[in-house]
Amino acid sequence: MADLLSRVATGRDRDAFAVLFRHFGPRLKSYMLRRGADAETAEELVQEVMLAVWAKADRYVPARGSVAAWIFTIARNRAIDRLRRQPPVRFADIDDHDGAADEPDGEARLMEGEMEMRVRGALDALPDGQRRIMGLAFLDGLTQAEIAARLALPLGTVKSRMRLAYRKLRASLAEYMEDSR
Predict the structure, then answer these.
(1) RNA polymerase sigma-70 region domain spans which residues (predicted)?
(2) Domain that holds residue 16
């Protein structure tokens, strides 16, 4: 790499610079993305760094470090310069915020996940006929008469299986419902 940079410094060798660009361009972009730049800003910074490499190639001193270290030092400095040019981010005082969060907090999400897991477990424990009827009623939104027609069962059978399923679900989930209050 040092010989390529030397060719850029002494003879403004475009082919040598193209090789350097192909080698360091993706690495520089990745570096900028890891430092928090968005994709567009990272691309701009890569361009700025490589222009600086082109313009300052004669200032590279091999005794001070590798070509990569020199180029990434330029990249770090350009990233810092970009941050300094950006306007400061204003944060609202937490005391000024009155609104309730739109999304549930972590504890509420955890409770919802636990509830869903328990309900699924209770549904899975139902006999197949009851589970199927409950699925048609609540997942597909069918009425008892529609379920009876779809499954070719008497309406009374659908009603009694639903009533039994409700009792079993209530019994399975009663302990959980008392704990969550």
Answers:
(1) 20-86, 122-171
(2) 2-85
